[in-house]
Amino acid sequence: MDKRAAVIIFRDHLKEVIRRSGLSRSQFARKVGVERSTLTQLLSDKTVRLPRSATLVAIATDQQVSVDWLLGLSQNDEATTQILPSLEVAEGAWGPADERLSNWHREAVGYKIRYVPSSLPDLLKTDDVIRYEHGLAATGASNIRMAEAAGRLAYSRKPETDMEVCSSLQSLASFARGQGVWEKLDKSVRLQQLERMAQLTDELYPTFRWFLFDALEYYAAPYTVFGPQRAVTYMGNMYFVFNSTEHIRILSRHFDNLIRAAVIQPPECSAHIRNLVLTSET
Fold first, then answer.
1. For the chain, how many structural domains are there in total?
2. Are 25 and 36 in contact (CB under 8 A)?
3. In which domain, by residue range, is 54 found?
4. Which residue, 40, 70, 100, sits at the end of a domain?
């Protein structure tokens, strides 16, 4: 980002902070401890000037906002690193991290959502697969997950949505064959799930696009990029939430690389899944 662009972002964010404070510019300057003339220069469209570090810290500290946000380096105005405990499925609880995930999906309306699932894409899962994943003892959690999946599917049917998903060929093949974590899942349930995914990838295309890459060539841990606002990686029992613009760009570039490396493109995905059905039935 060049200096002029940084100045424009800072000026806009400073105006927003002053607006939120409910103070006049003179009152605001006194409260944060800067000269009125300095504040006037920082807000002037004719000046290409960023504040001194001491001024920047004074504004951020007094108004409880992030320095990175003031400078346009973060999408979040809170000066906190967010590491959130995820839902403990065994307890059947609807946790705060999962509520945030739902909110992040709603906030990302109008932006592209880019998603590397930990297993199958949530919105494509059948109820039986969700129950299997969360265990018979987690009935409450399973019901919540099913409702969440149904809500995301309904959302994905809207024309303004835009979602890209990247998974490995091998993870989908393992599901079809009942290997690994899927070995105890009944074959009829797996076939039903495959048929549903084939049907939905056809129905939802092009607003939902599923790319399959070769895991022997590329690796991806589960994560979601919610447009330019935030990126979230799932680490088993916690979510790591990135609000830094640079971190979001890095994960977006990683996703771009997965798309470029995909051996199955979205228009071919349903045919590939139906071929897995035929293979599994023989």
1. 2
2. yes
3. 3-70
4. 70
Whole-number Å distance between alpha carbons of 282 and 279: 6
Among 249, 262, 265, 254, smallest CA distance to 209 is for 265
Place of tokens 């806009």: 12
Compute the distance between CA of residue 265 and CA of residue 269 in angstroms, rounded to an integer: 6
CA distances from 232 to 85, 116, 235, 252 (A): 13, 10, 10, 11
pTM of the entire structure?
0.67
75: in domain: no
Tens-digit pLDDT profile for residues 145-202: 666 666 667 767 777 789 999 999 999 999 999 999 999 999 999 999 999 999 999 9
H or E element at residue 98:
helix 96-107
Q: Clarify whether residues 263 and 187 are in a common domain.
A: yes
Final residue belonging to a domain, choices 70, 101, 128? 70
Phi and psi at residue 34, in whole multiples of 5°?
-120, 155
Same-domain status, 24 and 126? no
Could you count the other beta carbons within 10 Å of the beta carbon of residue 233? 17
- Residue 31 and residue 105 share a domain: no
Dihedral sign of CA atoms 10, 13, 18, 19 in order: positive
Residues 204 and 161: their CA atoms lie apart, in Å, by 10
The DSSP element (H or E) to which 230 belongs, if any, is: strand 230-234
> First vs last Cα of the chain: how many Å apart?
57
Distance CA 228, CA 252 (A): 9
Tens of pLDDT, residues 28-84: 999 999 999 999 999 998 888 788 888 888 888 888 888 878 888 777 665 444 444
- Residue 201 CA from chain centroid, whole number: 20
Residues 178 and 114 in one domain: yes
| Buried residues in 146-166 as b, exposed as e (16+ CB within 10 A) | bebbeebbebbeeeebbbbbb
